Amino acid sequence: MSKSVSPGEALERIFEVIREEAVANPTFAKRLLDAAGVTVVFSGPDAAKVADPILAAARAEYADFRESFIGFTEKDLKSLLKGFALATDEQIKSVKTKPKQSGLVDLMWEGAKRKLDERRVK
User: Fold this and answer.
1) pTM for the structure as a whole
2) Which of 107, 3, 17 is nearest to 53 (CA)?
């Protein structure tokens, strides 16, 4: 049952399995992104499932953080803000920027930095 293939073909098959698993499993994709240690611009319908604004704020300056999240929908940004407890409902409702995503990203940055500071104090 053994089929001989070139090293390049074997690696391509392995990487294809990794790509497929990353698409199907957001937790796995997040682990891969964390291991890469680079600024990632999230996009696509599943971006909010793999994004961790606290981790992103720990690894990036404001400009890179903003670039990573500015393309998210208002709904996804609100979900991240609530899911990571980065802002209250009142804070989210008080965002009046145009476009609203811009203010929500700023609010997320502030909340993520606050969470990081809280972790350092403990």
Assistant:
1) 0.68
2) 107
